[in-house]
Design goal:
By secondary structure, this protein is mainly beta. It has a single domain, classed as Lipocalin. It has 2 helices and 9 strands; from the N terminus they run αββββαβββββ. The longest helix is centred in the first third of the chain and has 15 residues. About 5% of the residues have low confidence.
């Protein structure tokens, strides 16, 4: 009976290495920076993470999810407090991210390549404003730090304000459809 119990314990320990290991993102040490462009300039700021994790198997990402709190969106390039809050309010409005109804955005990992020279290709589903689209990007790994830059086409997520994809004759009032998310995650 002792041999059987020992065998079961050994089999259970061995099977743990077969399953993925879940690592939580340290949200307080992680950063999401956004940049949006317009004719003649850009604006940028940050969005706080609410939660996140990655599942690893043999040092390869096999799953995971990162959730952003859209209510936390800030603008960091405008020093005038009034104009800053005006833009933040506009970004939170239905013209842009509609955070009253869509307070969270998230990325869910569907697959990834193995890390080679500290880099891997990650694919998954990005949800913004209740719309979900597939997205792939490179992730760089340096110890417990993971960085990525996502190029997001806002027109695919029904973020229409100032978009040439939806409106004609915007001239110099047009806002670029592609915005960038520079992400640094600590595990």
């Amino acid at each position: 009976m002792k041999k059987l119990s020992l065998l079961i314990v050994l089999l259970m320990a061995a099977s743990v290495s077969v399953f993925a290991q879940k690592n939580e993102v340290k949200v307080n040490e992680s950063v999401v920076k956004w940049t949006g462009t317009k004719i003649g300039g850009s604006h940028y700021g940050e969005i706080e993470l609410e939660s996140g994790y990655f599942e690893f198997k043999n040092e390869q990402i096999v799953g995971g999810e990162v959730v952003m709190d859209m209510n936390s969106i800030t603008v960091t390039d405008i020093e005038d407090a009034g104009y800053n809050q005006k833009l933040v309010g506009h970004l939170k409005s239905d013209d842009f991210f509609g955070v009253e109804k869509f307070s969270k955005s998230k990325f869910v990992v569907s697959k990834a390549t193995k890390f080679s020279n500290g880099s891997a290709k990650v694919s998954g589903e990005l949800t913004i404003k209740g719309k979900t689209e597939s997205l792939s990007f490179d992730v760089k790994k340096d110890g417990d730090r993971y960085t990525a830059q996502l190029k997001v086409d806002r027109s695919k997520y029904d973020v229409r304000y100032g978009s040439n994809s939806f409106f004609d004759n915007l001239g110099d009032k047009a806002i670029g459809d592609i915005f960038t998310l520079d992400i640094t995650l600590r595990m």
